[in-house]
Specification:
Number of strands: 0
Order of helices and strands: HHHHHHHHHHHH
Number of helices: 12
Strand content: under 5%
Number of domains: 1
Structural class: mainly alpha
Helix content: 55-70%
Largest sheet: none
Amino acid sequence: MTDVSLRREADEPTSQRYSRRRREEGGVNGASELRRVWRLNWLSAIQEFCDLQGQLAAWLNANAHNPHFTFIELIECYWDDLLLSEDQGGYPARIAEGLLADHEAAAVAKFHELVATYDAPAGDNFDHAAILDDPAWLNVVREAQIARERLAPLILDPAEKAALSDRSESAYRAWR
């Protein structure tokens, strides 16, 4: 990258930078498509946090070959892929970009706080058995379920409702 392109990227709002990168990679085209994809990914991530049975099946499956269905990937998808970390502006920036509404962010605020403060037992993000036995993790899962219940009446789009409530096909494949 040139100095000019680095400067341009640093000055771009996150959603524009993300959208531009996706266009360059042949992905998302335009703000409405970015919003649609972001929301589906966001709601799917919340569903994955809710799904303790899915976590047990995928995370403890010695034959699983899809790295997406691990604790580390779940956390990274939420923070990094959705640009929800504090240094990326978090929910306030995503609201300002029109990706979600204030009341939707409010519905997941406690869940978001618990995810932000969760640490795996003994700091071992690879010990899925310990994480799944951890009362603090089970509290994250419960709060994700509460957040999903709060979001459900706010979500009107059928594809978004499905992303929030249903396991993805790739999740089912991860169990095999």
